[in-house]
Amino acid sequence: MARVEDALLPLINLVFLLLMFFIVAGELADEPLPELPATTRAPERQAPQADLVVDARGNWLVAGAALGKAGLLDRLPPPQTQKPLKIAVDRGIAMAELEVLMKVLEQGGYSEVLLLTEPGE
């Protein structure tokens, strides 16, 4: 009849071999672990530096003033080929709503626009 100690002997051998493996593997690594980057506080959100802002409600804002199709082109800087118009758009705006804005800008002579986005969180 087999004793309980005889059944535990392979388990003890396995644990001993694993222990030896990790001791040897730890000795082989000469380089220390890399330093963890210091945690910094997230910077406060700033208003984007844009010529035109489209907020979450779909309002078109130039210098903080909400404008419609009629007054938008009068308040924007004139179209320039060297400097595209900067547009900051809220992430909740649908592309269909942006198409209306892009058509108005195209009619106003803006051939190049720069769409500003926020980094993902």
Automatic annotation (TrEMBL):
Biological process terms from the Gene Ontology for this record are:
protein transport
Q: Does the keyword Cell inner membrane apply?
A: no
Cellular component terms per the entry's GO annotation: plasma membrane
Xref: Pfam families: ExbD (PF02472)
- Where does it localize? Cell membrane
Membrane-crossing residues? 7-26
Topology relative to the lipid bilayer, per the entry, is:
Single-pass membrane protein; Single-pass type II membrane protein
> Which keywords has UniProt assigned to this entry?
Cell membrane, Membrane, Protein transport, Transmembrane, Transmembrane helix, Transport
The record's principal subcellular location, in a coarse class, is membrane
Highest taxon of source = Bacteria
Alphabetically, the GO molecular function entries are: transmembrane transporter activity
Query: Is the Transcription keyword given for this protein?
Result: no
Q: Which InterPro entries match?
A: ExbD (IPR003400)
The Swiss-Prot or TrEMBL record describes its family as follows: Belongs to the ExbD/TolR family.
Q: What is this protein called?
A: Outer membrane transport energization protein ExbD
